[in-house]
Amino acid sequence: MSDISGATVLDVRDVGVHYGDRHALHSVTFSVRRGELIGVIGPNGAGKSTLFKAICGLVNHEGSVDVNGVHCHDRVDRMDVAYIPQRSDADLLFPITVGELVIAGRRRFRHWFQRMGPADRAAAAAALAAVKLSGYEDRSLSELSGGQLQRAYIARALTQQASVVLLDEALSGVDQPTTNELFDLFAELSQQGTTLLVATHDLALARHRFDRIIAVNGTIRGDGPADLVLAPAVLDSTFGSGVATHGGTL
Q: pLDDT tens digits, residue range 9-27?
């Protein structure tokens, strides 16, 4: 794992989200340090995706989100956070190349009317090299495997120079060799100081791949080392009675 400096990059305080009369999240509070690699677990509908969207400013929320010590009032304040959503067929049908996707991360550094310049193209090329996708610039997203697509989105986050990367079910549908490759990449980015939060249903994966796990179901049910958060009492609170005996994917 990374040499964590102790500097807080993400501070979430009393965050709540309502969809009409339904409380999707309430009283969510936690902080994350530079270079942490954290697993976020919980059942379907528990609020993991909603939490990530709230952190990015994609949904209205109560409470506060600070990124690198800056209190965020709107989405513009949160460009230090990159959100990589679950893969969908719509993503693959969208007519965009890998190169176009990755260089889009440089938009935060340009006015809408400015064209991308040599520095932007160099940053995109460096990001693609970092995720081992050099030479894929002209391929459409539909030509990529699941693991390659995740790498392309991570490359966009790198060109965005995001301090925090939120990956929503990034490992869903990818095989074991690809999972291993992605975790090698996660570990490398973590060592370089990027903070990553990875939502997953796979408890076995969470146990063996993350030093810290946050369990979510409407609110934070557990936060800490794997052996603490994956204890029976916390799993029952998160997933419901009887799940504590289930060691695999939920």
A: 999 999 999 988 888 999 9
Given a cut of 50, whether residue 2 has pLDDT beyond it is no
Alpha carbon 145 to its chain centroid, in Å, reads 19
pLDDT of residue 239: 92
CATH number of this structure's domain 1-80+164-174+195-243, picked from the four choices 3.10.180.10, 3.40.50.2300, 3.40.50.300, 3.40.190.10: 3.40.50.300
CA distance 120 to 116: 6
Residue 244: other Cβ atoms inside 10 A: 18
Give the span between the Cα atoms of 147 and 36, in whole angstroms: 22
CATH 3.40.50.300 in the chain is located at 1-80+164-174+195-243
Q: Say if residue 244's pLDDT is above 70.
A: no
Bridge-partner residues for 31, per DSSP? 11
